[in-house]
Amino acid sequence: MSDNCLFCKIIAGEIPSQKVWEDAYCYAFRDINPQAPVHVLIVPKRHVTGLNDTGALPDQELSACLHAARQIAAQEGVGESGYRLLSNCGPHACQSVQHLHFHLLGGKQLSERMD
Ligand code: 5GP
Ligand code: ZN
């Protein structure tokens, strides 16, 4: 846990969230400002700042986030209709929370554009 990290506080239950998934290595909850009918944030429980910091995350914990994504998509009913999984890294990508997270977006036709 990192002091003053919003997502660490959410994982610890110090800040409320709408949990959709939890296992030994990751936690997932609904985005407070959803960009799609399904917008879930998947985070490793271990604090790492983002994609540039995944060297500090054991492979098992990183892969747990991806396996969770597949299962959350199915749970949310978008496994077959389709979904997008993305992680913003750094200023040009507008990363606003410095704890690695994957956005899972679905439930509508998403844009072909990625920007
Ligand atoms: P980023 O911009 O870093 O890729 O994504 C951060 C995400 O966290 C944003 O989509 C934002 O809406 C979400 N977020 C920020 N604060 C909170 C919060 O307190 N609770 C929840 N559930 N989501 C949050
Ligand atoms: Zn954190």
Describe what this molecule looks like in 3D:
The chain starts with 5 loop residues before the first helix and ends in a 9-residue tail after the last strand. A five-stranded antiparallel sheet has the order 1-2-3-5-4, with helices on one face. It has one domain (6-56, 64-106): HIT family, subunit A (2-Layer Sandwich). The protein is built from two helices and five strands; from the N terminus they run H-E-E-E-H-E-E. The longest helix has 17 residues, at 59-75. The protein has 115 residues and is an alpha+beta fold. It has helices spanning 6-11, 59-75, and strands at 19-22, 26-30, 38-44, 83-86, 102-106. The protein is globular and about 40 Å long. The structure holds guanosine-5'-monophosphate and zinc ion. Guanosine-5'-monophosphate binds next to strand 2. Zinc ion binds next to helix 1.
Low-confidence stretches: none
Radius of gyration: 13 Å
Topology-level CATH name:
HIT family, subunit A
> Mean pLDDT across all residues, rounded?
97
- The CATH architecture can be given as 2-Layer Sandwich
CATH superfamily: HIT-like
